[in-house]
Amino acid sequence: MATFNIVLDKRTKLKEDKYNLAVRMVDGNDVMYINVQKMTESEYEKAFNKKAKDKESRAFLDTCNGYISKCETIFSDLKPFNKETFRKRFWETDKDKPKL
After folding, report:
1. 19, 33, 40, 66: most buried by Cβ count inside 10 Å?
2. Separation of alpha carbons 68 and 45, rounded Å
3. pLDDT, one tens digit for every residue, the chain (100 residues)
């Protein structure tokens, strides 16, 4: 079974010191990233701080947890697994990206 996590993908630095916030799938030796938003390290730390109490951070975390749940559902339905089909199904019902 694959595992899904929200990560700040620091492999590529973007404009204005931003990185891609991505859902990372790990299935054995197979790794895939689905970029959901661009953010700075400080925005990431603020949003994913376990002590964060503000409504915006909580709402954003709920959105990210929804992405993980969606990925788990799609993965369990997709037999055989195909990365292109997975990405298509991930974005077909969710055209909007979360805002922080």
Report:
1. 19
2. 19
3. 899 999 999 999 999 999 999 999 999 899 999 999 999 999 998 888 777 678 888 888 899 999 999 999 999 999 888 999 999 999 986 544 454 4
CA atoms within 13 A on the CB side of 76: 8
42, amino acid identity: S
Residue 31, beta-bridge partner list: 26
First vs last Cα of the chain: how many Å apart?
31
Length of the chain as a residue count: 100
Cα 4 from Cα 65, distance rounded (Å): 10
